[in-house]
Every structure is written in C-alpha cells, then in structure tokens.
Amino acid sequence: MHRACSLQRVIIHFDYDCFYASVVENENPALKSVPLAIQQKQIVVTCNYEARRRGLRKLQLITEARKVCPEAVIVLGEDLTRFRDASKDLYNFLQQSIWSGRAERLGFDEVWLDCTDMIDYNIGLLNLNDLSHSFFCMNKDDPTIGFAYDASNVYGPTYPSSPCPTTVLSEQDEELRLRFVLGSHLARHLRHELESQKGYTSTVGIAMNKLLAKLAGNVNKPKNQTTILPPREPLGDPERTVIRFLDDHDIGKIPGIGFKLAQKIRAHVLGREAAFSEGPTYAGTKELVTVFDVRSYPGMGPKRLDEILAGPGSFKGIGGKIWDLLNGMDDAEVAKVRRVPSQISQEDSYMKYLHTFEEVKKQLHILGERLIRRMHMDLLEDDDDGGGIGDCETLRRRWIAHPRTLRLSTRPRPLSGPDGGRARASQRISRSAPMPNFVFNLNETPSTLALRLADEALVPMFRKLHHEQASWNLSLINVAATNMAETAAETKESKGRDIGRMFRRQDEILKDFRVTAPSEEVNDTRSAIPDRSAAQSLDAMMAESTSDIPVEDDWDSEDGKSQQLERCEICENAIPAFALAAHRRYHDLSN
Ligand code: DCP
Ligand code: MG
Ligand code: MG
User: Does residue 90's CB lie within 6 angstroms of at least one atom of ligand 1?
Assistant: First the structure.
C-alpha cells in the first residue's frame, strides 16, 4: 500500500476487559460485585477487576490466589465453548456496525476494525463552522442513524497526552488530527454500544495502523481508550509522535516480534544472551531492551536485522519487516470478515496412556461429537426463506458450508532418551478422508452421528495411523473438518461465485439436510452433496502424512498470518503467543 495512503487509515483495536471473567459475569450478574477468578489447570487465567483490586493477577497460581484472596470465587474455565461463543457474538456485533467489511479477530478477545471509509464519509458531512454540533452518520442509507458529538474535541485520552502549546500543526497534520478526532468519537460510540447492548466493557486503541492501534489500547486500561494524534514534529518528520510512542516499549511487546525474535535482538544489543524470567512466571525478559535501544544501536537497520534474525523460522525480508515495525510502520490490512472458518477442529491432550481400544474409541466419539456440535454452531444458519405456510414454528436451518475433508491427527509421545531425559518432542501424524455425508443430517443428534463417525471413519483412520494393538502413548488427538465448500449467500462477504445459480441449486442440493421437524425417518444422504464422487472410497482418499502439521487457522485463530504462534520449546506445539506463558507453566506443573 502507498505510504501516504496508509497514513490516512483509521484503525480501531478492541481488547475486552477481563474477557473470560466478563463472560462468566454476564451469565451470572451476581458475580460482578465479588472477586472472581477463572481457573484453567492450576492457573488463574484471568480475574475480574474486583479481584485485581484485592491483589489477584492474571496467570497466578491458584494456590497463590487462594492465599492472597481466600474469598475469591473461582470458576473453572477449561471448556472454552462459552468464551468462543461470546467472542463470536461480540465480533459479529462489531463487524456489523462498520462499513468496510474489514474486521479481524485475534484470539478470543481482540478485534481490529478498519473505519477509514466511515471517517472519510463523516469528514465530508462536517460543518467546519460548527464542529461542536456534529452528527456522526452510522448508516449511509438512513441519515438519522448515528450519534451527536463534538468534533471540535477528541474524546478520551490521547498520545501525546496534551498538545505541545508551541506546536503549530501543518495543514496535513490538522487534517489528520480531525480524522482521529472522529475516530475517537466513533470508538466511544462502539464501546458504549458494546457495553449497553452486550454487557462487555473494552479497552480501545485508535491509530493509523494495526500495530499502533493495538499498542495504543494498552496505555489506558480498563474501560478506556487512547488515540494516537499528531503532531508528528519536530522537524516535520511525519513519524515523530509514533516513534516517541514506540521508543519506550520493550522490544518483546511489539506485536509481530515474538519471544524468539526478541531474544535474538536483545542478545545482539546487549552483546550476550539476555536472561529471562524463569520458573512459574516466565513473563518475558528480566532485562529491558527497548525499541529505542534497538533503533539507535550503531549500524542497526533492515540489513543488520536480517543478519541477526537469519535462521530457521525466518523469512526473506524479515529484517525490513521488523525495522518497519520498530518505526511504527505497518501496512498490514485488517482482514476481511469471513463468513465461515477455513476449518474447524477439536482436540484433547492426554497425560496418560490410552490403554484399551475402547478408551481410544471413546475419545474419538467425544471429539467427533464436539466437532459436529461445533459445525452446527459455525456452519448452520437459519433458513429465512424456509418454512412455508403453517410451518412457522419449525426452525429450519441450512448449511452455509460443507467441510469436504475429515482429518484425524495424533501426536505420539516419544520415548524418553537412554539417559532418562526427555527426548525431542514428536510431530503430529495425520490421515484425511472425505467427510461422510451423514454428518450433515440434522435429524439425528450429534451424539448418534458421532458414534457412527467414530465407527465408520475415525476408527479406521486411527487404525491406519497406529498399528499397535494396545497402550497408545499419545499426547494429543485432534479431529478436524477442513476443505470448506462454501454455499452461496446474499452477503457481500460470501465467496460463492455464481450466487444466483447456487441459490437456485441450493434447495435441491440441501433438501435432505433441512430440518422440518424431528422425524423418525433417517434420510439417506449419501449422494446429496455435490463434488464428491461415490467412487472415492475412504481408503482411496486416505493419505498418510508424517510431516508436522502447522497449527492451521480456524475460526478461533481467524487468520493464521496475524495470529502470532510460537513454538513451545518443551512440547514443540505451536501456541498462540498470548497463551505461551500459561502453557509453559502447565509444563512446569506437570513435571
Ligand atoms: N487467556 C488465557 N491464557 C492466557 C492469556 C489469556 O486463557 N495465557 C484468556 C483469558 C482472558 C482472555 O484470554 O480472559 C483474554 O486475554 P487478555 O490478556 O486480554 O486478558 P483479559 O481480557 O482477561 O484481561 P484484560 O482486562 O487485561 O484485557
Ligand atoms: Mg487480549
Ligand atoms: Mg482483554
């Protein structure tokens, strides 16, 4: 993207306050006024602000938390369903409020919105002689939808926190400032709507790119927002404010610079390995190496960074990319709203052997059922033009996408080395097969379908992967629905190509999958889905793979490119960066 253009973007970044705790509070409002902690394994993954006031912290051990605040209510948060659903609901709410279709989720509790077009439009509506009585239009088709605001002032905290009295803004900066004034009011409005309609408070950053919007949000937490404003002086350097803002940040805090990259850069600047906190906190580095330290290090630049960061896992141009980030430049687009996830998967990890075949089968059934339930949540929508006369009480749902492939992956646990030490962690192995059509049958319960799925597909796949007869030592089993074939829809986000034709065909294609009423009759759905030849037998499609499967993007990690994954040194799993600290503690505890 052209630089001048990227300077004009207005990006808003949301991070929900105490997300998991807020989800639990919204289910049970009585918990709002008491200290509340959410437990996963032996760790407090988050806690509400009442608990934080009493000394509880995120990623604290439960034992510590009980000592610090014995009166805290501790709720188990290992089943992620409620958090995932709330996350999706909030995301849908936010993405529907904006126009660009660019709304990107990171993990469960962060969303970027590209609001450039809304700001452009509303700048055009301003009466420059009476800015304090402005109206922000939220719907081009209905000029009455929106909110009144004072465009002569920014809303909420800013960076820099107060304008330098002697600075005269250039005309370009004046224009830019006005855009962010509008951005700040839009952010306030969206935060307010999210709170009043959905019950969630959030912390928001408003800036000209994704990197800065995300970091800006951290400046004032919780229930607040921060806007990065011009001036970008001195000496007319357009990036000046941005650089000042970034300079104090620890290098590891910059999104896009993960733990390993940060350690390499620190080692270079310090001239030795940088020590990092060990034990159960693993919070990061003990030694602060700031963006300023790196940027001002003699000879530092894209080329030097390329040299420092070369090695496994690095990519061509990494030096330039990281250098841009250190200078506040990030041309990455906010990803477009996706109607369906690229894949859905369910997995579980196991600390103990699965001894008997019955145990394996039980796990496959459990995972299969979770997968089908997930497919129902993510891939079904109400069929508006469905029910006919007299049919209004019947909920009709239709599939908006069909995963064509079922994949089973396992991760065998390696034997320990001859010295008793831990051997190198092993890789996942997997098998894929066509998704059996019966899983799309909505007249059967997920549990019944999952029994059949386990018997007819997952067990045979498992047998192909593991020839042993008993005592499987697996650290993980994952079942996934992949290779989505999207059904067309009217939404602008839909990828369906010939929408009209696909709509006409949809009735025919999906008639067997419609639910009209619970029925005794089980449809034979075998030949109803197109693009799958009956000749493709399970065996013929099974392809063994011994290569490591990267953690692929699904609805939860939305866009694999933006979700920072880091590899755990102990089990070598790819873990979202935000969860790595807790994940390492999990290993500590299980040793
Ligand atoms: N989470 C987790 N494991 C981690 C970190 C976070 O399971 N190591 C979960 C719990 C959090 C949610 O992700 O509620 C979002 O993470 P945040 O870091 O944004 O934390 P919170 O939203 O809970 O708190 P804050 O108000 O500081 O944003
Ligand atoms: Mg967060
Ligand atoms: Mg949060």
Answer: no
- Domains, in order of start, for the chain: 3-246 (3.30.70.270), 247-337 (1.10.150.20), 344-486 (3.30.1490.100), 502-590 (no CATH)
- Distance (Å) from CA 182 to ligand 2 centroid: 25
Q: What is the dihedral of CA 123, 127, 129, 134, to 10 degrees?
A: -90
**Nearest bound ligand to CA 77?**
1
Mean pLDDT value across residues 409-429: 70
In three-state secondary structure terms, 135 is strand
CA of 404 to the centre of ligand 2 (A): 33
Strand order in the sheet with 110-114: 103-106, 110-114, 11-16, 202-207, 225-228, 158-159
* Mean predicted lDDT score pLDDT of the chain: 80
Q: How many CB atoms sit inside 10 A of residue 522's CB?
A: 11
The CB of 108 under 6 Å from ligand 1? The reply is yes
Closest ligand to Cα 583:
1
pTM confidence score = 0.71
Does residue 150 have a pLDDT over 90?
yes
Helices (H), 391-445: none
Q: Using one digit for the tens of pLDDT, what is the confidence trace for 542-584? A: 222 222 222 333 433 333 333 345 556 566 566 665 666 666 6
Band (pLDDT 50/70/90 cuts) for residue 240 is: confident
Distance 157 CA to ligand 2 centre (A): 20
Closest to 485 measured CA to CA, from 527, 530, 449, 441: 530
* Residues pairing with 567 in the sheet: 574
State whether the beta carbon of 46 lies less than 6 angstroms from ligand 1.
Answer: yes
pLDDT of residue 568: 61
Encode pLDDT of 190-235 as tens digits.
999 999 999 999 999 999 999 999 999 999 999 999 999 986 654 4
Residue nearest (by alpha carbon) to ligand 1 atom 24: 18
Q: Please tell me the number of the ligand nearest to residue 51's CA.
A: 1
